[in-house]
Amino acid sequence: MARKYFGTDGIRGLANGGKLTPELALKVGMAAGLKFVRGEHRNRVVIGKDTRRSGYMIENALAAGFTAVGMDVYFLGPMPTPAVAMLTRSLRADLGVMISASHNPFDDNGIKLFRPDGYKLSDAIEADIEDLMQKDISSLLARGRDIGRAHRDEAAQTRYIEYAKRTLPKGIDLGGLRVVIDCANGAAYKVAPIVLWELGAEVFAIGDDPDGFNINDKVGSTAPEALRAKVKEVRADVGIALDGDADRVIIIDEHGELVDGDQLMAVIAQSWHARGNLNGGGLVATVMSNLGLERHLASLGLGLERTAVGDRYVLETMRAKGFNVGGEQSGHIILSDFTTTGDGLVAALQLLAVVREQDRPVSEVTRCFEKVPQLLESVRFKNGKPLEHKLVKQAISEGRTRLGDAGRLVIRESGTEPVIRVMAEGDDEALVAAVVRDVTSAIKDAA
Q1: Residue 6 domain-assigned?
Q2: For every one of its 447 residues, what pLDDT tens digit does the chain have, with 9 covering 90 and above?
Q3: Does 1 map to a domain?
Q4: Rounded Cα–Cα distance for residues 425 and 371 (Å)
Q5: Same-domain status, 19 and 105
Q6: How far apart are CA 397 and CA 87, in angstroms?
């Protein structure tokens, strides 16, 4: 059955522009609270957020819902998504909540929920919460002394800072490195620069002055030009760009060149393999990761397990098959030895550890493999199901035949908008472009 509120990554939408309202947040708080109230102890929920103005509104509405069903609320303030997941476990909370719309514009917002073990909720639990949200639960509300209390956890930032620092291998510090950190005017604007500075780096921060409206605005992992310019201006050794909730990262090397998630995963996997710390015999990535990554791993005797697009699918495969490194080309890197979700800062620290160990510049460390030419185009359609059209099926089949074993063709329909994404890659760049052109043309004709 189709879900009414939850999508692929919690609840997300325009704040006060549709389903995401204080009323909805109140219902989520009551329903999720009832689902996770357990035992005779004072049940607790931790709530973190990014820097969007609407976060205040949603935070207070959620708190009202949770306290109404007897849960004690601990406000963490602006905090990365992976910090909320970690603190949910560390504080023995019964539930964790992150208020964020990640890399979206400021006027969007969202609600992500974490289980007591720090993992995101399953589809089944989200369905149960939706069911409770649509019922009359007034008889289940707490009364008198059982009503919950709200606290502000002043030590939360320090806990995450110390946790992040401990992920750097023993005996390594960042002394002598000039690092630019772009916090996207988002959730990590306080903690990320502190972590890097306390590890010994000379830190230049940008995107660290949020005003409630400038999150992801011309800064962050989706807009790397500001970081590139700052790296060149201060002659930094590396630039690190996080997104609004700091679960993604991209790197800019000392020459101003972008290092994406595929290259970062290759560095980490190769380093962990050399130390004997890599589990699963390789790593997990999505169908969008470059063929060059797969070939590079094969040359090391390592495998690449591919999943559908989405960090939840990456994590499911990692847990099911025993991998401890996985992620997406976009920079959502999951290192399960440390985290239960993507953590942009922790992933960046793993790269910096290799840079210090090898005493080589970032540009050399991250040139693990040559990317295979890859082209992605999106086709918007108005109605119908173009992928079921005979001529579209024929174009896709012919495209795969033309690319053969030396390339790949991936067709993906968006789950949130009427868009079909066509991605092809292969050694022959002209052939890749021709295949994408032919398939997109067929889809446009059918749509």
Answers
A1: no
A2: 567 899 878 999 999 998 899 999 999 999 999 999 887 788 999 999 999 999 999 999 999 999 999 999 999 999 999 999 999 999 999 999 999 999 999 999 999 999 999 999 999 999 999 999 999 999 999 999 999 999 999 999 999 999 999 999 999 999 999 999 999 999 999 999 999 999 999 999 999 999 999 999 999 999 999 999 999 999 999 999 999 999 999 999 999 999 999 999 999 999 999 999 999 999 999 999 999 999 999 999 999 999 998 888 999 999 999 999 999 999 999 999 999 999 999 999 999 999 999 999 999 999 999 999 999 999 998 878 889 999 999 999 999 999 998 899 999 987 667 899 999 999 999 999 999 999 999 999 887
A3: no
A4: 10
A5: yes
A6: 48
The domain that contains 306 carries what CATH number? 3.40.120.10
- Cα(396)–Cα(440) distance, rounded to whole angstroms? 9
Contact assessment for residue 228 and residue 255, using Cβ atoms and an 8 Å cutoff:
no
Same domain, 18 and 111: yes
Which amino acid would we find at residue 411? I
Residue 54: active-site member: no
Only one residue has tokens 């239960």, namely 340
Contact criterion met (CB below 8 Å) for 132 and 141: no
Please state at what angle helix 156-166 crosses helix 81-90, rounded to 10 degrees: 100
Q: Provide the number of structural domains found in the chain.
A: 4
Catalytic option among 102, 221, 330, 336? 102
Q: Pick from 204, 228, 256: which residue ends a domain?
A: 256
List alpha helices for 107-212, DSSP H: 123-133, 156-166, 191-198
- The Cα 317–Cα 84 span in angstroms is 22
21 part of a folded domain: yes
Q: In this structure, are residues 409 and 443 in contact, taking their beta carbons and an 8 Å threshold?
A: no
Tell me how far apart the alpha carbons of residues 212 and 375 are, in angstroms, rounded to a whole number. Answer: 35
Phi-psi region of 72 (alpha: psi -120 to 50; beta: other; left: phi over 0): beta
- Which pair of structure tokens corresponds to residue 262? 């595929």
Query: Of 212, 237, 256, which residue sits at a domain end?
Result: 256
Q: In this structure, is residue 295 part of a structural domain?
A: yes
List, in order, residues 6 or more apart from 125 with CB less than 8 Å away: 35, 115
This prediction has a pTM of: 0.93
Q: Residue 2's closest CA among 130, 101, 133, 134?
A: 130
